[in-house]
Amino acid sequence: MSEGLNSSQTSLTFPLPLLKDTWQTKAKSILKFLGPAFIVSVAYIDPGNFATNISGGSVFNYSLIWVILWSNLMAIFLQSMSAKLGIATGHNLPEMCSKIFSRKTNWFFWLEAEFAAMATDLAEFLGGTLGLYLLFRIPMIYAGLLTGALTFLIVYMEKYGQRVVEWVIGTLVAVITIAYTIEVFLAKPDWAQVGIHMLIPSLPNGEAVLIAVGMLGATVMPHVIYLHSQLVQARNQKDQTEEQKRKHLRMERIDIVIAMNIAFLVNAAMVIVAAAVFFRNGIAVDTIEQAHKSLEPLLGTLSSGAFGIALLASGLSSSAVGTMAGQTIMKGFVGLSIPINIRRLITMTPALIIIALGVNPMNALIISQVILSFALPFAIVPMLLITSRKDLMGSLVNKSITKIAGWIITSIIVGLNAVLLYLTFSGKV
Asked: Is the pLDDT of residue 16 over 60?
């Protein structure tokens, strides 16, 4: 009887180590593929997001939080498609464009992508510069030069492998997330209003449309759509079977969902803090410096310090990612290979000119994000066309529902841009 009981107990407990081993194996498998989306996610919480989100929250309270939610859903869809293209074809998006479109078309794509990259670099570079200025009171022009040097250092680490860059940028993302967690805790927002405006879309006036389009351009960014298809190559196995490609895509989707939702929470936190602190106190924020200064008397030194640290981490990390994307764009579309340092110096120039002229960096940041929204369709449409071709994508070709979703997203972006143009030329913005 005793032996039978022991045997029963053994049969009940025996599977537990196997379950533990299975769980550990799955966890290790997922961890192996985490990384590319975290590099990409930096672009979704770059200094351009600070400008658009703080403006939106300080002027329109919680009204525009829904833009962050829907932009994030679009981002998850588009980054998944970019990763799928890279996994299925073994090439990045610009390289695939060079294979199937004419030379003239690729030169157009390249020029448009470089123009968007300059707008991206402007936002990222200004963010790092402002972070150094606000934290350490380094004069803006010197802070700009130091930002450039620190960016070179992060990009230089790529020589030790993509994993090293992933760890560096992942750490900076963690810094931004922790900083804004502190901000939300101190701000004590109205969570009921947050929930209502997260679910119910509204655009109070023409200025809200400008900010909403800027939010979209700051959240869904063309340069990382190009870059993601390149980053997944580091996880591609040589001569992958269709089943291996499908497994890789499943793992990368987990990577994307985790990273993009972290970016969503940070973006939402920016709007929430701006609404809870600035709008509530009747402060319409015009500059990043004003946002930093206003936080200290309203919430204390910890809050203003966390803001400065988050801005610096955002500027440095996103600047490095922008440089990586620039190389992918140049080599892919037209086969140009310009040394990173020279390219970085070229794209730093507009930001240094703006700093030297004393232009309001916040206005420059918002306009740069609107430019990116106009550039988005030129990245999305070629990607949709390529991923819908079975001869290029194999078993990972877009299904009908994916094609429909992709064209709906493209139509929304083009439609918002058209509305903004109408409001601009009619003098309503």
From this structure: no
